[in-house]
């Protein structure tokens, strides 16, 4: 069943006519994954390479997680499931929002197959809207500041973080507590779950 589902995802053209460069779903999932990285949508470079977080955002994200590329791209440990699987195109201030149709069609079906997930990393407001729902704070900054509330009270544990994009450099400078308080806990949790194969 999972193999068929993954095949259906890779062949999906649901939003093809609305996407700037057409459909090219990019996900990394396995039923044995322990950590779910819930992102926004692939960027242009990821659309071209077909590799999740194959860009500057990915470099920073791997540094935040404290893992190398081999660990990050091990689908038996990390599931990478953005809110939309295809590059949405360029907007006035960065990429366009992820298509809501993608999540409606696929997200619940895939999450039901990821029964081993013990930690969800909710990147950015779109993923936080989905995974935190009504418990999300009015702003991303407030949501991330209250990360302990979600981490302690959710099963699986959830840690909301900002997007690792270079566009967020100003946010990171204004909120140094994120890298001094949240990142060490995130890295420690990842380390506790990681069992080399």
Can you count the helices? 10
Q: Any idea what the shape is?
A: globular
Strand content: 5-15%
- Helix fraction? 40-55%
| Number of β-strand runs | 6
Please write the string of helix (H) and strand (E) elements.
HEHHHEEEHEHHHEHH
Gyration radius, rounded? 16 Å
Give the biggest beta sheet.
4 strands, parallel
Query: What is the straight-line distance between the termini?
Result: 24 Å
Helix/strand-derived category reads: alpha/beta
Indicate the low-confidence ranges by residue numbers.
none
Strand arrangement within the widest β-sheet reads 2-1-5-6
What integer is the average pLDDT?
Answer: 95
Structure described in brief:
With about 200 residues, the protein is an alpha/beta fold. The protein is built from ten helices and six strands; from the N terminus they run H-E-H-H-H-E-E-E-H-E-H-H-H-E-H-H. Helix 1 (about 1-10) runs antiparallel to helix 5.
Describe it for me?
With 197 residues, the protein is of the alpha/beta class. The chain has ten helices and six strands; from the N terminus they run H-E-H-H-H-E-E-E-H-E-H-H-H-E-H-H. The chain has helices at residues 2-10, 44-49, 56-65, 69-72, 100-113, 124-132, 140-145, 147-153, 169-174, 177-193; strands spanning 35-38, 78-80, 90-91, 94-95, 119-123, 157-161. Strands 2-1-5-6 form a four-stranded parallel β-sheet. It has a two-stranded antiparallel sheet with strand order 3-4. A hairpin with a 2-residue loop joins strand 3 (90-91) and strand 4 (94-95). Helix 1 (2-10) packs antiparallel against helix 5. It is globular, with a radius of gyration of 16 Å. The chain starts with a helix and ends with a helix. The mean pLDDT is 95.
């Amino acid at each position: 069943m999972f193999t068929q589902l993954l095949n259906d995802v890779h062949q999906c053209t649901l939003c093809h006519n609305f996407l700037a460069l057409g459909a090219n779903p990019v996900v990394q999932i396995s039923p044995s994954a322990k950590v779910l990285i819930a992102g926004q949508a692939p960027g242009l470079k990821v659309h071209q390479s077909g590799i999740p977080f194959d860009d500057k955002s990915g470099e920073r994200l791997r540094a935040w997680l404290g893992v190398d590329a081999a660990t990050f791209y091990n689908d038996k440990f990390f599931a990478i499931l953005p809110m939309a699987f295809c590059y949405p195109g360029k907007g006035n201030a960065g990429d366009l929002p992820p298509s809501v149709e993608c999540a409606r069609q696929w997200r619940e079906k895939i999450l039901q197959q990821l029964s081993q997930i013990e930690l969800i990393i909710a990147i950015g407001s779109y993923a936080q809207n989905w995974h935190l729902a009504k418990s999300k704070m009015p702003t991303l900054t407030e949501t991330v500041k209250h990360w302990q509330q979600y981490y302690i009270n959710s099963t699986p544990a959830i840690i909301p973080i900002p997007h690792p994009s270079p566009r967020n450099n100003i946010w990171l400078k204004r909120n140094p507590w994120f890298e001094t308080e949240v990142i060490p806990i995130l890295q420690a949790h990842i380390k506790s779950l990681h069992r080399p194969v």
